[in-house]
Structure formats: structure tokens, C-alpha cells
């Protein structure tokens, strides 16, 4: 397909969007040209310029080999580094500007392992055909800013459609992760896959197993943090990719029959995700507002009911139960996130939110004691702002009166939390005797027994509130008198 030149006004707008980095691009283009090489801005930065978006990346491609690229960048920048010489990529920094320059490539996967077979290409057009989608296969030659679009990416951009530069079977066979990227672009940019792209995704979904868990995870994170994550997730499920990379999600599509009526758990989870996103604070807001996009909250919202399928039971009389699904779900969520190589902190936080997401439903019309409220706060810890939002988002009932009642009850709980926090500094609740004081009072050394004594005084603190060090010591001694160690 021959290049389609954009209207002059559109090209001017795109170049204007690149204005902050245009001096850098022009300078680099002139340096590479003077050395006898080609250089072009390619991929996401070009796409985003036509979309009126500011791209944080400066991805460049060149006819120069990595050694020549490194020499040119060393003269230009204050630092260079090898980002993958075998793949032809060299990074450089000049002030606050960071660039990545990659030699023209014509790489492909061998169809068996996760390792790409790299071959450097001879032309920009050869490099563009190996890009994931036509909207990312546009380039601006430097320094003259000549527009190159051999695969009709600009038209796809206007139509918000995802097509591959080569046949989708070939593109996805070269790198199966591109199927995940399709879902990510649906979530980030609101695009839709072309029919042949969707067909290929369905036929080749199993090939995603050739891709490392880390790469899959990174695409999933970008998808979830996009503007339209539900659309991206639905593509993952509809294409069969989710059955491989996140099987707990399609498993939520429980059969619903007329005799055992219950909510469609899959649809419910999608709605909870959207409602949780609506409750996120602005990106520059304080931590207690849960600034969005918040990955932990979004993962917890998506996975909060994954324990329902294995715990579903049909009760006499036509009811359905999911006893302890929050506990089962927390373990399932942790296993899946570990398999996707998420960091320990994220795994722990998401699993804890899944485990706690039902706790509020015991609150009723405010029957909780102050002790129960204290435990709710201390069990949530730093996750409390997220738990507030997850719990509120979990209300998807169409019964307006019930929804208002639940919202009012949670309003009441939050008021009580604020009051108790102000009165007792709940976020820093500790026993009224520290470890040294407990050891001195009982005449014991640090160890498991001291840990049990500490937990006992913490429970006293949560149940009774502040009672003072003297009363706390009396409670401790009374507890100690009942322990077998005290008589040893």
C-alpha cells in the first residue's frame, strides 16, 4: 500500500504536538544524516502526535548498526547505555531527554521458544512491516519530517481500527504478545480489532503460552490502567486469551438458570471494576483519595469474586450460596498474581482486599460495636481507603432502596471510623504496654510467649479502647495467670 499523505493541517497539528522535542529530533536527524545514516521517529510517538496526545517515549529507528548508533549518541548525549545490543537498541540521555534508537529490524520468533530471532533490516519500510499494528507502523523521517505510512495507519487511526501490517497470522506468529497488545490498545485508545485480526486472535490464543509471564503481566497492567479496561478485558475473554493468561475471569461466567437465580458474576465483576474506577481520586490527589489509575484497587475489583465458582452450592428451595468465597478467592487471586510475576506487595494487597471485601456486610444498620469498627480499621491498615471504594463499588443491585440503604450504612461506618480515629488514633493502634514493659511485667524473654502476650493486649485494646497502662497491666497479669508457662 502506498503512503497516504495526511492533510497539511493534520500534519501541522501533529508536528505542533511534537514541538517540545522537535529541536532534539532535528538535531539527532542531522547528526545521523551527516554520518551517512537514516533516522526516523516511529511507532507510538507518531501515533500519539496524530491523536493529539503527548508521548513520554522517543522511539527512533535507524539504518545505522548499534556500534555506529552508540558513537553518534555518545557525541550527542551525556550518557549512553546498552538496552539490548543484540536487538540493535541503544539508549541515551541529554538533560531530561531520553531516547531509544533501534537499528532497522526484520525479526521473528522461531515458533517454539520465547526468544526472538533477530535479523537487522535494510530499510525503514522493511522495519515498519514488522510492527504490531498499522497505527504503529507510521514514521516521520528526520530531520525533514517526511511522513511514511506504507500500511494505511493514518486511515486506521481515523477509523479507530486495529489491523496488522502483514497477515495477522504471520504477525501474531512472530510475536504472540501482539494479541495482548490488541486488547491493551482497545482499553487505552478505544480502538476495535478488524475482523481478520479478531479471527486470528481466536485461532491463535493458545500461542500466548510461548510468551513469558512478565511480558504478559506488563500488557495486562497497561490494559487495566487504561481508560476503558472493561472493553480490553472483554476482548481477552471473547478471544480466548483470558482462558490462558487469566482463567479465573472467564470462569466467572457461571451458568444462570431459572431455578437457581443469582447475578451473572462476570458482568457483576465488570460493573464493580467500572464503579471502583469512578471512585478513584484525581491523579495528583492525596493518597487517601486513591489517585487513579490505581492498579491494586482495579485488580481487587476485577478479582474480588473469583472464589464464587468453586464455592457455589445450590441450596434446597432454589437458593445459591458461595460460603467463604472471599477466603478462597483471596488465595486464588494470590496464586494467579504470583504466576504472572507481580511483586509481593501487590499480591499481598490485592489478596487482602479480596479477603476483606465482604466484611462490611455484617455491619447491618450499624450494629457493630466500637470494637468491631476498630478491628475493621486495623485489619485493613493502609488499604482502608481502597477497601472503602471496593466495598461501595461492590453494590450493583438494581433495587434503588437497597442501594440507598447500603450507601447510608457505609456512610455511617465511615463517620464512626473518623470519630474513633480522631479520638484514639486508630491508624497507630498499639497495646498500652510495649514489648519491653510486657517482658518486665511477666519476667520473660523475647520469644513466642511474648508475642502471644502482645497479641492479647492488642485484642484488649481493640475490644475496650484506651484503658490506661495500669489497667492494661492488670489484664496482662490476669491472662498470664491462666497460661501454663506461668506455672513452669
Structure annotation, total helices: 23
Query: Which radius of gyration do the C-alpha atoms yield?
Result: 29 Å
What's the story with the biggest beta sheet? 7 strands, mixed
Provide the spatial order of strands within the biggest beta sheet: 3-4-5-2-1-8-9
Q: Catalogue the unreliable spans.
A: 257-261
User: Could you report the average pLDDT, rounded to the nearest whole number?
Assistant: 89
Percent of residues in helices comes to 40-55%
SS elements, strand count: 13
**How would you describe the shape?**
elongated
Structural class: alpha+beta
Give the N-terminus to C-terminus distance in angstroms: 88 Å
Please state roughly what percent of the residues sit in beta strands, choosing from under 5%, 5-15%, 15-25%, 25-35%, 35-45% or over 45%.
Answer: 5-15%
Tell me briefly what this model is.
This protein has helices at residues 8-17, 22-34, 44-51, 66-76, 124-128, 153-159, 168-174, 177-189, 195-204, 213-224, 229-239, 242-245, 265-278, 295-303, 308-311, 325-339, 344-356, 370-380, 384-393, 400-424, 435-442, 448-464, 469-481, and strands spanning 39-42, 59-62, 79-84, 89-94, 97-103, 108-109, 116-117, 139-142, 146-148, 161-162, 192-193, 313-314, 320-321.
What does this structure look like?
- Helices cover 51% and strands 9% of the residues.
- It has helices at 8-17, 22-34, 44-51, 66-76, 124-128, 153-159, 168-174, 177-189, 195-204, 213-224, 229-239, 242-245, 265-278, 295-303, 308-311, 325-339, 344-356, 370-380, 384-393, 400-424, 435-442, 448-464, 469-481; strands at 39-42, 59-62, 79-84, 89-94, 97-103, 108-109, 116-117, 139-142, 146-148, 161-162, 192-193, 313-314, 320-321.
- It contains 23 helices and 13 strands.
- It is elongated, with a radius of gyration of 29 Å.
- It is an alpha+beta fold and 488 residues long.
Amino acid at each position: 500500500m502506498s503512503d497516504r499523505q495526511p492533510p497539511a493541517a493534520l500534519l501541522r497539528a501533529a508536528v505542533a504536538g511534537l514541538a517540545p522535542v522537535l529541536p532534539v529530533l532535528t538535531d539527532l536527524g542531522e547528526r545521523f544524516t551527516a554520518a551517512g545514516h537514516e533516522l526516523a521517529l516511529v511507532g507510538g510517538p507518531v501515533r500519539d502526535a496524530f491523536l493529539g496526545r503527548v508521548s513520554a517515549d522517543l522511539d527512533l529507528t535507524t539504518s545505522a548498526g548499534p556500534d555506529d548508533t552508540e558513537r553518534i549518541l555518545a557525541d550527542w548525549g551525556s550518557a549512553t547505555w546498552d538496552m539490548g545490543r543484540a536487538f540493535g537498541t541503544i539508549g541515551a540521555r541529554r538533560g531530561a531527554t531520553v531516547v531509544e534508537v533501534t537499528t532497522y529490524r526484520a525479526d521473528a520468533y522461531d515458533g517454539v521458544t520465547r526468544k526472538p530471532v533477530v535479523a537487522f533490516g535494510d530499510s525503514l519500510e522493511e522495519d515498519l512491516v514488522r510492527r504490531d499494528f498499522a497505527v504503529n507502523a507510521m514514521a516521520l523521517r528526520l530531520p525533514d519530517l517526511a511522513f511514511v505510512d506504507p500500511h494505511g495507519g493514518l486511515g486506521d487511526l481515523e477509523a479507530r481500527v486495529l489491523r496488522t501490517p502483514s497477515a495477522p497470522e504471520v504477525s501474531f506468529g512472530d510475536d504472540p504478545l501482539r494479541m495482548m497488545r490488541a486488547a491493551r490498545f482497545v482499553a487505552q485508545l478505544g480502538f476495535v480489532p478488524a475482523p481478520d485480526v479478531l479471527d486470528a486472535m481466536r485461532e491463535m490464543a493458545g500461542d500466548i503460552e510461548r510468551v513469558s509471564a512478565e511480558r504478559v503481566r506488563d500488557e495486562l497492567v497497561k490494559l487495566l490502567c487504561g481508560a476503558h479496561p472493561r472493553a480490553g478485558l472483554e476482548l481477552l475473554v471473547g478471544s480466548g486469551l483470558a482462558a490462558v493468561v487469566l482463567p479465573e475471569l472467564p470462569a466467572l461466567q457461571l451458568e444462570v438458570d431459572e431455578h437457581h437465580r443469582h447475578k451473572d458474576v462476570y458482568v457483576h465483576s465488570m460493573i464493580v471494576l467500572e464503579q471502583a474506577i469512578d471512585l478513584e481520586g484525581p491523579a495528583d490527589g492525596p493518597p487517601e483519595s486513591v489517585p487513579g489509575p490505581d492498579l491494586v484497587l482495579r485488580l481487587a475489583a476485577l478479582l474480588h469474586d473469583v472464589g464464587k465458582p468453586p464455592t457455589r452450592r445450590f441450596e434446597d428451595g432454589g437458593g445459591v450460596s458461595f460460603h467463604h468465597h472471599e477466603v478462597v478467592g483471596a488465595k486464588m487471586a494470590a496464586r494467579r498474581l504470583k504466576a504472572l510475576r507481580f511483586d509481593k506487595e501487590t499480591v499481598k494487597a490485592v489478596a487482602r482486599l479480596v479477603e476483606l471485601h465482604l466484611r462490611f456486610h455484617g455491619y447491618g444498620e450499624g450494629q457493630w460495636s466500637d470494637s468491631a469498627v476498630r478491628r475493621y480499621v486495623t485489619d485493613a491498615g493502609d488499604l482502608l481507603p481502597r477497601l472503602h471504594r471496593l466495598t461501595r463499588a461492590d453494590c450493583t443491585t438494581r433495587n434503588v432502596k437497597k442501594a440507598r440503604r447500603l450507601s447510608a450504612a457505609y456512610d455511617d461506618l465511615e463517620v464512626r471510623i473518623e470519630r474513633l480515629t480522631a479520638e484514639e488514633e486508630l491508624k497507630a493502634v498499639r497495646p498500652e504496654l510495649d514489648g519491653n514493659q510486657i517482658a518486665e511485667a511477666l519476667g520473660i524473654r523475647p520469644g513466642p510467649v511474648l508475642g502471644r502476650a502482645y497479641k492479647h493486649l492488642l485484642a484488649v485494646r481493640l475490644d475496650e479502647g484506651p484503658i490506661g497502662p495500669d489497667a492494661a497491666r492488670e489484664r496482662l497479669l490476669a491472662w498470664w495467670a491462666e497460661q501454663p508457662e506461668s506455672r513452669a
